[in-house]
Amino acid sequence: MTSKHKYITRLHYKSSFGWWVRLRSAEIQKAFSDAVYGSKAESLKAAIKFRDKTMRELAKQGVPVGRKPKGHHKKPTSKSKTGVVGVTYQLRRAATGTFNKYYIGSYYPEKYQGLSKAFAVNVYGERGAFRLAKAFRREGLRSLRKRRDAIP
Questions:
Q1: pLDDT at position 68, please?
Q2: Is residue 105 part of a domain?
Q3: Final residue before a domain boundary, out of 43, 60, 77
Q4: Distance (Å, rounded) from C-alpha 40 to C-alpha 57?
Q5: What is the domain range of residue 55?
Q6: 107: which of 68, 79, 84, 146 is 20 to 30 A away, CA to CA?
């Protein structure tokens, strides 16, 4: 069931009730329980306040806050937003409340044991962070191949 408030949805799940704020383009979500806030109206007020504050912060940083554009389901075959297998893009909320952008390179040296490293866009720049993430994955895969080839 949806509400008339943009990006806010009413939750009815077994014994839990509340509101759910989802800003999809920024991949941010947070739930506001009626039990925690005391009533349906108070949890809605808290959800609206969170949504408005988060949207203002994202707008200041130039991060789009709307829904994902039509056709977003037509992703590259790598299932990655970057178009490169093993390299992803992520927004993370810092303790200060700002959002930092990262490119993350990852690979799996063992089954169920992934290694990853994040490269901050504000430190290395957009292209630099992307290149470093690709290089991290490439080097990790190269070391795996060497290890595999060394086994008699």
A1: 56
A2: yes
A3: 60
A4: 26
A5: 8-60
A6: 68
